[in-house]
Design a protein that fits this description.
Elements (H helix, E strand, L loop, with lengths): L2 E6 L4 H10 L5 E8 L10 H4 L9 E3 L10 E4 L3 H7 L7 E4 L6 H10 L5 E3 L5 H16 L4 E8 L9 H13 L6 E3 L13 E7 L5 E9 L2 E9 L3 H14 L6 E2 L1 H5 L3
Parallel strand pairs: 1-2, 1-4, 2-3, 4-5, 5-6, 6-12, 7-9, 8-9
Antiparallel strand pairs: 7-10, 10-11
Helix pairs in contact: 1-7, 5-6
Bound molecules: NADP nicotinamide-adenine-dinucleotide phosphate (NAP).
NADP nicotinamide-adenine-dinucleotide phosphate binds next to helix 1 and helix 3.
């Protein structure tokens, strides 16, 4: 059975990769493509936007009924767009990769998960899902190590640190049974580094798809655990796989680990 997918953020860097992934077939197909009411892409054919023959699915504004005919909505947009879309989802499943969500917006996802399946992930790659687990284990095995997380992204990225870097920080803290305490960058006479907090450093520039390194620095040795994404196609493939997984399941929050069979 093919799952009908609506894309929120269809004109964006990620939305286009999701459309291209759906066009490969394989159990999920494009049913709606949604953007803002001010989008320059309104009315364009989704497939033509990604260099494919027309699909007949035209980009439409976020409004009541825009996801009609969709089983699942795959969202890579902006926090405000995701918040505005939630009332239009009804009991449709949601797969979201939008980062930079406020505590209130995260709570709204919990609310939605009482009505429908919701899977939010900071990063839809298999490699990062594994890296989260490795970071948790390493932090637990090396309690004395100072941890610093460094991420690099393209110049257009709107939030910092990345959702993935924050998730890595949570994984490290979880490995140590602590709640995450973060230090964002350093400047001036900072004094000696205290042991507890996790250092977070965001580099921005050029066309970098996404790089993350977790450093564990001890006396006499250090470990770095790193991941480099070389194409957004890898995130799109993970998101479409998640969409197929959650469609038709009971309402609750789902984790990407479950989809990938890692938990
Ligand atoms: N979880 C992951 O694996 C992963 C991977 C990569 C990126 N991301 C995250 O995904 C999000 C999108 O990234 P991107 O690089 O694709 O961004 P982008 O290129 O800026 O695309 C944003 C999309 O959101 C749409 N949008 C913006 N405001 C809207 C609104 N009010 N209503 C409806 N649609 C709206 C835009 O449409 P118009 O401007 O045409 O209206 C556009 O299609 C970011 O939060 C990014 O951090 C997550």
């Amino acid at each position: 059975v093919s799952v009908s997918v609506g894309i929120l953020g269809a004109s964006g860097r990620m939305g286009r990769f999701v459309a291209a992934e759906l066009a490969k077939g394989g159990g999920a197909s494009l049913a709606a493509a949604v953007v803002s009411g001010e989008s320059r892409s309104l009315g364009c054919d989704m497939h033509e936007l990604v260099g494919l023959p027309p699909s007949g699915v035209l980009l439409r504004p976020l409004a009541p009924g825009c996801f009609e005919g969709c089983d699942v909505v795959v969202d890579f947009s902006q926090p405000a767009a995701l918040a505005a879309a939630l009332p239009h989802l009804g009991e449709r499943a949601l797969v979201s990769g939008t980062t930079g969500l406020s505590a209130e917006q995260l709570a709204a996802l919990d609310d939605q998960s009482r009505r429908a399946p919701v899977l939010w992930a900071a990063n839809f790659s298999v490699g990062v899902t594994l890296l989260l687990e490795l970071a948790r284990q390493a932090a637990r095995a090396l309690p004395e190590a100072d941890v610093e997380i460094v991420e690099t992204h393209h110049r257009h990225k709107k939030d910092a640190p990345s959702g993935t870097a924050l998730a890595l920080g949570q994984a490290v803290a979880a490995g140590r049974g602590e709640s995450p305490a973060l230090v964002h960058g350093r400047e001036g006479i900072t004094g000696e580094r205290p042991h507890g907090p996790i250092g977070m450093h965001a580099l921005r520039g050029g066309d970098v798809v996404g790089e993350h390194t977790v450093w564990l620095l001890s006396e006499g040795e250090r470990i770095s655990l790193g991941h480099h994404a070389s194409s957004r196609a890898t995130f799109a493939a993970g998101a479409v796989r998640a969409a197929r997984f959650v469609a038709g399941r009971p309402a609750r929050r789902y984790q990407l680990r479950e989809v990938l069979g890692l938990s």
